[in-house]
Amino acid sequence: MKQTNVKPADGKLGIMIVGNGAVATTFMTGVFMTRRGLAKPIGSMTQYDKIRVGRGADKQYLHYSDIVPLAKLDDIVFGTWDVYPQNAYQAAMYAEVLKEKDINPVKDELEKVVPMKAAFDRNYAKRLDGDNVKDCKTRWDMVEQIRQDIRDFKQNNGCSRIVVIWAASTEIYVPVDETLHGTLAALEAAMKADDREHIAPSMCYAYAALTEGAPFIMGAPNTTVDIPAMWELAEKTKMPIAGKDFKTGQTLVKSGFAPIIGTRCLGLSGWFSTNILGNRDGLVLDEPANFHTKEVSKLSTLETILKPEVQPDLYTDYYHKVRINYYPPRNDNKEGWDNIDIFGWMGYPMQIKINFLCRDSILAAPLLLDLTLLSDLAARAGRYGIQRFLSFFLKSPMHDYTKGEEAVNNLYQQYTMLKNAIREMGGYEADEEID
Amino acid sequence: MKQTNVKPADGKLGIMIVGNGAVATTFMTGVFMTRRGLAKPIGSMTQYDKIRVGRGADKQYLHYSDIVPLAKLDDIVFGTWDVYPQNAYQAAMYAEVLKEKDINPVKDELEKVVPMKAAFDRNYAKRLDGDNVKDCKTRWDMVEQIRQDIRDFKQNNGCSRIVVIWAASTEIYVPVDETLHGTLAALEAAMKADDREHIAPSMCYAYAALTEGAPFIMGAPNTTVDIPAMWELAEKTKMPIAGKDFKTGQTLVKSGFAPIIGTRCLGLSGWFSTNILGNRDGLVLDEPANFHTKEVSKLSTLETILKPEVQPDLYTDYYHKVRINYYPPRNDNKEGWDNIDIFGWMGYPMQIKINFLCRDSILAAPLLLDLTLLSDLAARAGRYGIQRFLSFFLKSPMHDYTKGEEAVNNLYQQYTMLKNAIREMGGYEADEEID
Amino acid sequence: MKQTNVKPADGKLGIMIVGNGAVATTFMTGVFMTRRGLAKPIGSMTQYDKIRVGRGADKQYLHYSDIVPLAKLDDIVFGTWDVYPQNAYQAAMYAEVLKEKDINPVKDELEKVVPMKAAFDRNYAKRLDGDNVKDCKTRWDMVEQIRQDIRDFKQNNGCSRIVVIWAASTEIYVPVDETLHGTLAALEAAMKADDREHIAPSMCYAYAALTEGAPFIMGAPNTTVDIPAMWELAEKTKMPIAGKDFKTGQTLVKSGFAPIIGTRCLGLSGWFSTNILGNRDGLVLDEPANFHTKEVSKLSTLETILKPEVQPDLYTDYYHKVRINYYPPRNDNKEGWDNIDIFGWMGYPMQIKINFLCRDSILAAPLLLDLTLLSDLAARAGRYGIQRFLSFFLKSPMHDYTKGEEAVNNLYQQYTMLKNAIREMGGYEADEEID
Amino acid sequence: MKQTNVKPADGKLGIMIVGNGAVATTFMTGVFMTRRGLAKPIGSMTQYDKIRVGRGADKQYLHYSDIVPLAKLDDIVFGTWDVYPQNAYQAAMYAEVLKEKDINPVKDELEKVVPMKAAFDRNYAKRLDGDNVKDCKTRWDMVEQIRQDIRDFKQNNGCSRIVVIWAASTEIYVPVDETLHGTLAALEAAMKADDREHIAPSMCYAYAALTEGAPFIMGAPNTTVDIPAMWELAEKTKMPIAGKDFKTGQTLVKSGFAPIIGTRCLGLSGWFSTNILGNRDGLVLDEPANFHTKEVSKLSTLETILKPEVQPDLYTDYYHKVRINYYPPRNDNKEGWDNIDIFGWMGYPMQIKINFLCRDSILAAPLLLDLTLLSDLAARAGRYGIQRFLSFFLKSPMHDYTKGEEAVNNLYQQYTMLKNAIREMGGYEADEEID
Fold first, then answer.
1. pTM value?
2. D382: which DSSP letter?
3. Which domain CATH number covers A149?
């Protein structure tokens, strides 16, 4: 490794997960099993990807950990919050994502992960009925309690650093309100005034994490990290913030497939996406208010990849529709069906249909590993505020729209951004452009 | 446009097409209709794509024709060879690719394209029974007759330049024979000796074109352009040569979809591709000897994108199978069904199924336009021999394996190569690396 | 033909269609073209099907018209009502279901079909904006005007008999109200009181038709024919009544596929059905109130085929969901995607996915022909009231639930009912049982 | 139960299975688990189906065992032959069809099923390499050894009756040879003359079974039971014979789906079926000579359901193609993809695509149970020779073509035949007709 300005990854890294469900337990089980050599962390960029550094005769293909100082899997300690009190072993068994034989060897480690009481408000997720919940007088009190949890966890586990990541359900849609969410001062005032309509519990987690000097990552489509107040806080605390919504099944395919169409200058007349899923995430999304949050997040993908202003003959007025359907027989095996209507030479139509029989938690787990390790890396590299280089992992990537920034959704442009950031943190030259 | 060293595209460009069937007539009809403002050449990079030139503050997004001197559609003249004597209007109607209303406005122009007699050998395509065929004593005689056709066409139509492109059927598989195909001298000797087993008619077209100072492009999977003798001839005549096999349906999807898997470090256990198609191309491929040629061409795609030597945990021993089935009810509407078996976190399996209801000729037509215009450009730019920058358009791209070169099949790496070549010919700096 | 008690089909049959859109014009064009020998009425049971009559040594396989006196295609005269004033030729061209070459030969006949002003209430179909609409003071006035239309049409065209069929859009859901819809007297009172909330325009058409001595058929999922008042009217006027909702794409498949599962004693854990369609029908169904009408109609299919009370191990608690999505790129090419989750030996799960790329109007047209001809036959045979034997053609078949009757949705049981009715009207013995 | 003439099912029933692989072990495990109340024999007609007996007021819906005397699951004893020596527990674990937790409870019973040495000839299945094989001097000797096995098994296990069923691999295609296979005398002569080309090992099993007074059922597409000599033997020994080829995935769907098309008088222009499968059965079928046997069996299905002679406008010249592909990633999860090209009103085309993610052994297991129990029943009922009523379970049902009989492939006609036979054996009146 070159000499870099990134601080070394000394000591233990505490990964505190909001949610102790299918995604979180699949992630933790995989890390425990990998540490014992019993499983492989397939799908993780930090563990597998090799990227080019240098050019021409000097070029090399290196793993991330050979370029920058990443935390080691052995140095990770896990903590969770959840509205259900079951420990991670019980939750993993209930989730039925992994086979028993892939959970049992690390049963003891999973059993030790007992979720802390969740900061929860049932108005934000009506379909959840757990009662392992904090008693909070106000939203500000909610923040204080979460901060105390973080401090306790850090001390009890001897962690040198903490990262907080949201892997819980989608909350109902909270539109960004310029008055209440526009500045840190306004946000804090609303929290103190206990404005429960505009302050989602997830905002309290984010606020608490950043204030305690921990990067925060939003894995659901909640607008938590879309508000300027939170960016201001990240700047103030010099902490990374990232989101939103893990890019798992259908959007992964969309952000990878749309570039095929765009690169070949084929036209698009419509894209219809439907999902069927049956886990707790699906149950929550069956509630229209929660689905709306997800839909807003999912719809933006195409618009920034296939742009009518650049290719009016090809991408004007295509019809884009996204549907999510709760369908219990699928359980965690989320299934996507995409119908893509393209047109070619002389406007003649063609169809592409993609049926993705994926597994939500299996696709999400490596994203949690990468997002937490890379956020921790960014913090040590002194990169704070919005982390655009993590767009690769996210369905609706953060960008400062108040400065006219656009989201980058094209998977390959996102990948270039990721590689460039690793190169820069490793002391190598980045490629200047992403297209 | 910057000052470039490319010669200007003055005068008429003769595009001579081997084959006057569905692909060729769809191509010609589209060009005629576009010239009259009655259709749009969707899918054509030379007509639609904009690429970045310059970097940072200097960067601009320009159409190809604003970077390099491309021939104009108005300057194109068409000629064809075919075993069937029907003119291009009749052939277009027979093909049933385009609707009558999209053919009739240019009926007069199409009727003027009457195919010259084909250089044909029925042993190479048993299922074709046309008799608009040259009477050739030897393969060398075949070459001579084609050369005469090219000279006549050029003179009669007042063309300043000619490009020859193969858009005819797949021939039976001719394995590369180092002795007979290894040097130009050996090739010429075999032609003179009338070695009909090792010299396919397509080789005579390629030989004739290059010798007459015309670039040659192989649109079928024939091994014509895979033989060192032909490269030697291209070097000697300072002409571009390109191939092979137009990248239309399933392989386009494959070369664009495999990078999604690779980029996200997901594993692959198998990829099963089946095609059903019902046009004359399908009929020819129903003959095992002809199918073999196609299969060899299609199988190589994945191996260079997902490499076991780079990611042994992910890409060792995946099972790749390609099937092509003649199924008349589909006619030109070639349909692909891909079954992709991937695995993620801890090795858990997932499936992706892609059903592409494409139209073979609609996807191929813009490739003919781009390949001929860009080959003509390359010739004027003094770029001769194998044109790797045209890999983007081809299923099994040419590469000099005798020098250890590997084919580039990843659609986005191919695209970078294409953009770099345009940039360079336009006097701009290329991006150095393709990954 | 045996001697039967059915009155002969003498004179002209007037088929009056509510709606002059894609379905109606495809139907009429096909009849006109068939009469000239230019097309074939594929999909029509009355024109194609042969059924067994007699048993053992006496059995014969005969076309319907060789068993019973059906009206001839040559004796049909068409009339329509529509909110848009375009004649049937214009409407057929606009619909883009049929190719021009299949419409033009009968252009003159189609042009003569100019829709009468529709009895319409925009509250029942917000997305429709035509203004070829009757000015009606009350619902009773609406009835009177439609009756006058029927009398005028019958006289002007010299028809001996009339059938009225609804091929217009789905109205918003009107729940059956026992008080208002329970008796004919109550219904008439509500019409006179101009109760626009409970009396849909479709009820006025049905009332008018029956009163004028014409069978009425409901082709949309409107509850028009589900109300006891209408049955009472049909009994009183001794006229057949049939409905509801043409069984075209997805439900046809469902009613034919579910029996495969049931017959083999396989279990069902879930059935997810999604549709995408882009014609005017889809536009109307994009309005939630109109969709609700459709959903109620579509959901009932499975429940009567796969019965938990008969096979509790196999059919208890399966999850059945139906989605309809407006998606303009499909136009009339309605597409269904069904995901069927079954289980077999020891409860092991399997999946079946059916993707139906159908054409709504092409599938509906022969149903209109069969339903009108067979309703006319039934009238002449003295069979009045609910026509259960027409269940075969309908998504949500009529049945007198007040007498504990159940709908029959199994396609093969419906077919047996159809065959039995034809046999009986033809003077043959029916098979007694449908399973 | 009514008084019937069927002998009671007293004593133990020995089910001797040729093959101890995925299908056989899934079958046996399920029976063992069901006997202990730990699993349910879903998909089995004899255990689940209820059929109507009587008509009108007298009709009742009864389980088969309430109509006829079926052997009980508790009375079954299993024996197997296989080229691999592993016991049924080991083979079940190797097959990976069932989860460990569904095998382990009956491990002890499975371990006791140790396969006898197989009567095998590697020329009939090149891809199999097991060596648990009998040493046979001639085919006649092979017969003798199998007969001895049957006698020994019967005696050792105290069975009152034996049924032999083939659940082993597909052999290479043996065309029926009128001279050698036409009479029993000729067959016996060929066996004694050790004509290994015309006498497949499966014929020796069938001969041995029938001669020992055991019904024989052919579950693979081998021509074993298609030869008149074998029918003659069945008549002579008064034993039932049934076959061939278990109707599991794609053909089940085909025989159930084609009737939908036929019943609605829709036209068919083509049906393309492809399969991917990865178990030992797939490996064997990857050998062209073995595949040919399967292909012949699968192609006949449609022809007898959709008949051009009855509906020339609808079913003349449709293109039917079947492909089977060995694809190891699927293992036992055989997957079918059917593309059905239909046409409707005025000849307009539509497509249906069916993707069946099935499990071969899960679908086959209940067929073994039903076929063995029903063959045993037939034997006790004195019904010998070809058992047409078992067509329901078979891909290519037996029929005496020398008498002009046709195979019945329509699933519902087959079901009627099955029900009629049960009714008759139970002393009830059969419905006379199957359509």
1. 0.92
2. T
3. 3.40.50.720
